[in-house]
Amino acid sequence: MAADKNVVCASCGFAKNPPGSARCVSCGAKIEALGKVARTKEEELEWRYQQEGLNVTWLGISIGVQGVLTAAIVFGLPMVITALDFEGGNGMAVCIPVWFFGGMLVGMISPGRTFVEPRIAAAVIAIPTTYLLQRSETVHTMPGFLYWIMAAIGVLFSTIGAYVGERIQMGPPPKTAE
Questions:
Q1: Got the DSSP string for 72-114?
Q2: Is the Cβ–Cβ distance between 12 and 170 less than 8 Å?
Q3: What is the pLDDT of residues 55-102, one digit of tens each?
Q4: CA-to-CA distance for 86 and 93, rounded, in angstroms?
Q5: Buried b or exposed e, range 56-76, using 16+ CB within 10 angstroms
Q6: Beta bridge partners of residue 30, listed in sequence order
Q7: What is the pTM of this model?
Q8: Which whole-number Å values give the CA distances from 91 to 80, 109, 148, in the listed order?
Q9: Positive or negative CA dihedral for 21, 22, 27, 29?
Q10: Strand partners for 17
């Protein structure tokens, strides 16, 4: 009885996936049946960075990561270090890099490609955070709509952070033989 050969991942090139695996052990991409889709090398490189769908587990993890980071830095840190005051617009300015870092963290630790999950998580966390920061402002220096614009910018930055995290996780793109 001949042993089946290991399957090579078309996305990352990992060559030690056990036969019959549904996903790559290294990057988490779906392993398609050999010969099912014939792609050129250029198509493979373009496909390498495409997300295949929404993963509910990683959405929950993303919400947890974004929520904990936001609560710890924006709301918790001023309780410990009283010199810091992140109310109002200052809190929103701090949220943007926090959500970027949260997206990057999720992008680095998640198997496969996850760009959508950190974006949705940042949007879910941005709604109550923006409301609380707007309501906690003692001196009104910024109109209400600017809070929501800054929240949208924070969600955008979480997407960029997820992309950066995925690039760190995947390493540099493979060289094309020309």
A1: IIIIIHHHHSTT----THHHHHHHHHHHHHHHHHHHHHSSS--
A2: yes
A3: 899 899 999 999 999 999 988 998 898 888 888 888 899 999 999 999
A4: 9
A5: eebbebbbebbbebbeebbee
A6: 23
A7: 0.71
A8: 15, 27, 13
A9: positive
A10: 7
Structure confidence by residue, pLDDT tens digits, 99-128? 999 999 998 998 777 888 899 999 999 999
Q: Using alpha carbons only, how large is the chain's radius of gyration in Å?
A: 21
Output the CA–CA distances (angstroms, integers) from residue 38 to 10, 34, 108, in the order listed.
Answer: 10, 9, 29
Token pair, residue 72, equals 């710890």
Q: Could you give the angle at which helices 56-70 and 116-136 cross, rounded to 10 degrees? A: 30
Give the helix ranges, DSSP H, for the chain: 41-47, 56-70, 77-80, 89-109, 116-136, 144-170
Distance separating alpha carbons of residues 178 and 141, to the nearest angstrom: 57
Contact assessment for residue 118 and residue 109, using Cβ atoms and an 8 Å cutoff: no
pLDDT(1) > 50: no
Say how far apart CA 96 and CA 130 lie, in whole Å. 11
Residue 23: strand pairing partners = 30
SS3 165: helix
Q: Please tell me the distance from the alpha carbon of residue 172 to that of residue 166, in angstroms, as a whole number.
A: 10
d(CA 45, CA 141): 48
d(CA 144, CA 166): 34
